[in-house]
Amino acid sequence: EKHFLAEHQLKNIKITITAGPTREAIDPVRYISNHSSGKMGFALAAAAAAMGADVTLITGPVTLATPAGVTRIDVTTAEQMHAAALKRAELSQVFIGCAAVADYRVADIATQKMKKTTDDSINLTLIKNPDIIADVAGLSRNRPFTVGFAAETQNVVHYAKDKLIRKKLDLICANDVSNSELGFNSDNNAITLISAVDEKTLPLQSKTELAKAILLHIYLQFSAK
Ligand code: CTP
Ligand code: CA
């Protein structure tokens, strides 16, 4: 068993990765989003391309440069990411859902800027967005090896395992975001890789190093199938 991926080891493998946040409009000047920086997804895309993979990176709004050799698709909303991801997923052998997809979108997006009223409170009705990775993992034909991420602040492994099973994933990368050193905007991260059969903790390291370790793990599981 090799413990690293050689330069061309992922040659001829198509990998689709989602990254960054999505952004859900409230009106023409306001939106709902989250603090995802896109760094982990971009690091995975860069590492996979460096190993020779054919990489498509579907990303929400981030300020990162496109890694060398990567095909980038920019989207804004969860619905746009869902459409782009499903189209690419069927053509891919591996799908990695790294995006922090907004769970809900605004039911009625105002066409004009909303004006402040004399009321002390207002209500926004939110509708659930489609679950992109669950739909990819549920593909009945050309289903890729599907890898999710779970950012949790408590019961990290328990919640991640629940997502692995519920979304029918092959692998989930559990991320403890209760510690601000890890995840989101940080350049470093530590994760636990969980599959139906085993669990492996990758200690705190740069997202670049972590990306290589995650890809090696994916490659070993994927090529064993
Ligand atoms: N995900 C997705 N589409 C969504 C929501 C999540 O593809 N609409 C993916 C993420 O990219 C990630 C995994 O699902 O790979 C887990 O995301 P997470 O937000 O942790 O899961 P949720 O099912 O939304 O659960 P939670 O209530 O913890 O937010
Ligand atoms: Ca969520």
TrEMBL record:
Pathway it works in: Cofactor biosynthesis; coenzyme A biosynthesis; CoA from (R)-pantothenate: step 3/5; Cofactor biosynthesis; coenzyme A biosynthesis; CoA from (R)-pantothenate: step 2/5
Claim: Magnesium is one of the keywords in the record: yes
EC number: 4.1.1.36, 6.3.2.5
Cofactor, how bound (note): Binds 1 FMN per subunit.
Chain positions covered by the region annotation Phosphopantothenate--cysteine ligase: 15-225
Presence of keyword Ligase: yes
Domain annotation DNA/pantothenate metabolism flavoprotein C-terminal: ranges: 10-218
UniProt keyword list: Decarboxylase, Flavoprotein, FMN, Ligase, Lyase, Magnesium, Metal-binding, Multifunctional enzyme
Function: Catalyzes two sequential steps in the biosynthesis of coenzyme A. In the first step cysteine is conjugated to 4'-phosphopantothenate to form 4-phosphopantothenoylcysteine. In the second step the latter compound is decarboxylated to form 4'-phosphopantotheine. Catalyzes two steps in the biosynthesis of coenzyme A. In the first step cysteine is conjugated to 4'-phosphopantothenate to form 4-phosphopantothenoylcysteine, in the latter compound is decarboxylated to form 4'-phosphopantotheine.
Protein's recorded name: Coenzyme A biosynthesis bifunctional protein CoaBC
Native species: Rheinheimera baltica
Gene this protein is translated from: coaBC
